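Long-time lurker. I teach an intro course on protein structure, and each term I like to show students one example going from raw sequence to a predicted 3D structure in token notation. This year I'd like something fresh instead of my usual example. Would anyone be willing to generate the tokens for the chain below so I can use it in lecture? Attribution to the forum is fine with me.
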Amino acid sequence: MPQPVLVSDALVEISFGADSQATGGAGSIPAGPTVNYECQAKSVKATVTARTQDLTTLCSETEATFTTGLTGTLDIELYIDDTIGPIFAYKTGFLCKVKITPGGAGSTLTYQGLVTDSSVTYTPGEVEMESATLKLGAFGFTAVYVW
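-- Reply from a regular --
Happy to contribute to a lecture. Here you go:
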């Protein structure tokens, strides 16, 4: 019987474009990701959805659906490093690439998108955390993720 894979110590590499789309431009596309930032994730949730068009004809006995593209979100929760601080602070509106390598689990994926939300949590007596949401497949990228 197949065994589930236990993910531990997911390594995350993150790179950002040089400027924000909020400044009035399309925003520069980040390389890589180059290892601009490297950290450990507490949790990562990627949701990829196909945009579809219904092509079913009148009186058809089957449904005909055509995929027109992919979209989705990447929700990421990171431990804040005491040396570099929060990575996503002041990065809302920037194009971003996030490479995720799960420890003990299969393949590496690189997600590409626009940072739409970021937050930092400081709770006395607990590990500092930050979270961010990326809208995948943002303007400038040709795919939501790459292998």
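Some talking points for your students: The first strand starts at residue 8 and ends at 20. The domain at 8-53+64-146 is CATH 2.30.110 (Pnp Oxidase; Chain A).
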